Amino acid sequence: MAMSEPSPSEESPSRGSRGIQSIEVGGQLLHALAHAGRPLALKDLAREADMTPAKAHPYLVSFGAVGLVEQEADTGRYGLGPLALQLGLIALQQVDPVRLASAELPALAREVGHTVAIAVWGNRGPTIVRLEEGPQAVHVNMRHGTVVSVDGTASGLLFAAHRSAAEVEAVLAAEGTGRTLADLAPLLDRVRAQGWSGAVDGSVRGVSAVAAPVFDGFGQMVLALTAIGPSATLEVRGEGEVVRGLRERGRGISGRLGWRG
Fold first, then answer.
1. For residues 224 and 119, is the Cβ–Cβ distance under 8 A?
2. pLDDT tens, residue by residue, 173-218
3. 3-class DSSP state for residue 248?
4. Low-confidence stretches of the chain (pLDDT beneath 50)
5. Hey, how many other C-beta atoms are within 10 angstroms of the C-beta on 211?
6. Nearest Cα to 148, choosing from 162, 132, 160, 134?
7. Is the CB of residue 210 less than 8 Å from the CB of residue 196?
8. By three-state DSSP, how is residue 71 classified?
9. Residue 205 CB: number of other CB atoms within 10 A?
10. What is the C-alpha to C-alpha distance for residues 150 and 165, in angstroms, rounded to an integer?
């Protein structure tokens, strides 16, 4: 028996990439609302989406019907609706920060010319969970699962600047160095202000590191992107290519996690 041709809706995504133009056009309004971060009047929203109010209004009516957009009763302004909120929260729950960052490591190592690593905050403090060797060998005993110090490493200082005081104090006490959060306060203020941290000859003499944060959609630091290399060649300064590369990559991953910093 001859088989009938599949309808367009039955075709697999790989067999075509035709979209629905009206959805793409309407999506400009959702992008504009997300970028604004607040409800907008119709004329302002239409302008941000590069369309006329008359063109924008029917899209907003349809988006309102499904909950993607809602209109304030008192001002008439349009904002994101309950369905948009639900989708955003579900997306945040589904995204794995370490998976996203791990995919970036090989290119990042080539870009900065040094070994790069991902560190997360574990129950014993900053912990290396991914490592990508760079072109310059680093003679340091570091592998997946290595716990690094809070006050002697770039990753540790970065986490200390963004985690709760109780968490940091507990790890500092366990490290037994005698240093307290109060001792580190001026340094951590500087780390927060500049948006990165560095450690010259930190844990190992002759080896330095710099680290940049990755934030999630709730503004919480979820991991540190760290470059490790010989102190003679690794630039530990904000204007350097290594710091710039880490920060740009960190901001990109943070944006994909919903961060709006």
1. yes
2. 988 888 899 999 999 999 999 999 999 876 777 888 999 999 998 8
3. helix
4. 1-15
5. 30
6. 160
7. yes
8. strand
9. 9
10. 12
Question: How far is residue 236 from each of residues 113, 137, 232, measured CA to CA in Å?
Answer: 14, 18, 10
Q: Following DSSP, what letter does each residue of 34-76 receive, concatenated?
A: HHH-S-B-HHHHHHHTTS-HHHHHHHHHHHHHHTSEEE-TTT-
Structure-block tokens of residue 78: 């349009």
Composition of the chain by helix, strand, coil, percent to 5:
45, 20, 35
Strand partners, 246: none
Q: For residue 260, give both structure tokens.
A: 């709006």
Partner residues linked to 226 by β-bridges: 117, 211
Tokens at 31, concatenated: 């992008």
Amino acid 31: pLDDT: 86
Amino acid at 217: G
Backbone angles phi, psi at 131, to 5 degrees: -145, 135
Residue appearing with tokens 């941000």? 48
Cα–Cα distance measured from residue 219 to residue 92, given in angstroms and rounded to the nearest whole number: 12
Q: How many Å apart are CA 239 and CA 138, to the nearest integer? A: 23
Distance between CA atoms of residues 64 and 117, nearest Å: 44
Nearest Cα neighbor of 123 from 165, 153, 167, 156 is: 167
CA–CA separation, 225 and 103 (whole Å): 12
